[in-house]
Each structure stands twice: as structure tokens, then as C-alpha cells.
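FAQ: What does the model actually see?

It sees only this:
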Amino acid sequence: MQYSAWRIFTQALKGNSGWKPVWRDPDPKPEYDIVIIGGGGHGLATAYYLSKVFGQHKVAVLEKGWIGSGNVGRNTTIIRSNYLLDGNQPFYEFSMKLWEGLEQDFNYNAMVSQRGVLNLFHSDAQRDAYVRRGNAMLMSGADAVLLDRARLRAMCPFLDFDNARFPIHGALWQPRAGTVRHDAVAWGYARGADQNGVDIVQNCEVTGLLVQNGRCDGVETTRGTIRAKKVAVCVAGSSSRVMAMAGLRLPIESHVLQAFVSEGLKPVIPGVITFGAGHFYVSQSNKGGLVFGGDIDGYNSYAQRGNMATVEDVCEGGMGIMPMIGRARLLRMWGGIMDMSMDGSPFIDRTPIDGLYFNGGWCYGGFKATPASGYCYAHLLARDAPHEVARAYRLDRFARGAPIDEKGVGAQPNLH
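And it is asked to produce this:
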């Protein structure tokens, strides 16, 4: 069923009685060409591009819970491509361009809102670092504007510019960045993949990998054995546990990242704002709630919940740049399990086991990378060659002395 304004109008006249399920609920087949472990944003995007772009239709996505129950529905919805290093910036700009045409591509309203991202700076040294980052963005084809104090004040007069500890001197602005409704991304990709013949199997937990003589031939699940020519793992914070089934150890730690939503307020935040002297980022939803987050919890965990110390720390960051939110009430909070790589950058690569592929280590950048991650992973699975913008995301880069150390984006092993 294709969505359009006309269809919405006619269904309203019929009492909305003609809508069909967005995707099927099939039983798993005994064998597929490609099995994708993980029904989050990256797994569903991979299945979508495999079927639409690369002509692979004997594909299954296995999700241990329900679609949208993992990190894809547990983030702060921000999309951006304001990275610095060569290994990252072209990739995230590719993702940004996919975001811009995503709703038309899969015919689903994901509420892509390009309201801009402001990265505040608080010192001359930080301004110079942002100038360098902005130039790197421009060289990759992205957009970047350096705002002085006067221009920033005109956009965000509510910020505490004269804070004695954290004076605000300006910001690096990416106008094309913004937010997207996270769960709608999962629904849109699931619907598109299903229409192209992909089986999306929910409540199907993988309990083992069928590895013999250096090759992976399928998976054991709670719904039976499923054979496959290729097995693609993309399970975010559960990466280490799933890959351990094949005897592989990853340079990844799992941490909780909490997110928060305040009560509904009148529109005040123009886009996304990040605190340069701490770790705090905030936007405002269409319902008026402030959506914000900060640092990961400082301990390893596989639980989708956090602790009160982090709540206090994140709220302190918000108060540091805009004390006006001090009396706003916190409405709800949640946690996602982050797969934190040791250099802050992800992996999209083949493993030493033939037929087994891995996508993970996204740290804080997983949601914004969803379209490009899915496209590049699909490229790798279909052609057994990395996509041009993902060539640096190799599993062996630490052994080769080629880390992509994007400071402030990923894990800092000395801190946890």
C-alpha cells in the first residue's frame, strides 16, 4: 500500500477501515541467501538496500524482540555530518544525503526535520578547533557556518552567554542537520524491506552460530535452525555476546547511554544545541518536550536502564548553558546499550570466519549513521567489497596502527 495525501483523505471518509499491516509477520524459512541478526535501524536498512539496490531478495532479518525495541527507539533522534577525520566525515555526509531523500525513497513519513545543529564553543582554542572541523566538513561537501557571539545571540537569546565559568563565544552551525523520528525510521525501513520480499522475523533470538571448518553456515535460534550463505551481525551493544558465539573477541565495550524528555514547553529551541564545555545536547520535539542526553554511564552493562548519578550530571550540563530550564520537570527517561569502540569509530567488515560479517562499534553515532550504515553493509554483503566511504572501518585497523581517533565522539578507554 502506497501512502499519499489522497489516500489519507479517502481513508478518513471510510473510517480508516482500509489500512493494511505495515509488514508481514512470517515464520522463518529453513534457508536464506543472507541472514541479518538484529532488527534495529542498521539491520533493517541493510535489508532494505540489499533488496532494493543490490537485488538480494532471499533475505531474513532476525529480531529477538519486536521491531523498534532496541537502540533505534532509544536515542535522541539527532542527525548530522559535522565530523573531522577523513575516515568519518565523507561517510556521515553520505548518510546525511540519504536522510534528505529518505521519506520519498521508502514512501513513509519519518519526520525528517533539518533545523540545524549548533556546537557551542567557550574559548579561543575551541573556536580554532571548530574552524578546522568546519573546513573539513566543507571539503567533504557538507555545510558549515561559524557564528560569532552576536549572530548566535540573535538565534538563541536564552543561552547564558556571560556564565563566569563557561562563557559562550560562538558556535559551529550545520544548517542541514537536525532530527528524525527514530521509531518511524525503523517502521519505514521494515515496510520497504518487506515490500521487496525480505522476511522480518520478530521474537526470534539467535542462540548460536553454525561455524565449522572456518565457515559460518547459519544460525541457531529460538525458532529453529536457519541456514544461510552469509550471516550479517548488527546488534549494537550485544555485539560482543553474539560474536563470542563464533569465538571472536571485539575491541568493544558495552555501556548504557541514557536519554531524557521533559514536560511539554512552548517552542524555544530552534534546532539542536550541544554544550562545548561538557557533554550535553538538546533539541525540542514536536510535542514540546526537551529531548536531551549526555555522557554514557561509567560502567559496563547490558541493561537498558541507567543510574541517578548520570541524570544529575546531564541536567547540570543543561543548567550550565541555559538556566531557564531549571524548573522544567523531567517526564521520562530510558537507556540504550552502546557498543563503544576503542577509537570512537565503527566497523563494517568481513570477519576471519568465511560467511560471517560484522557491523558495530557505533558509539554515540549509530542513529545518524543508519542510512549509510545500511547501504555500505549491503554493498559489502552483496559484492564482498567495502563501499568507498566505509573503507576505513576495518576490524584489523588497530593491528595495522590505523585507528580513526575522532575525539569527543566515542569511547575513552582511560575513563572506563
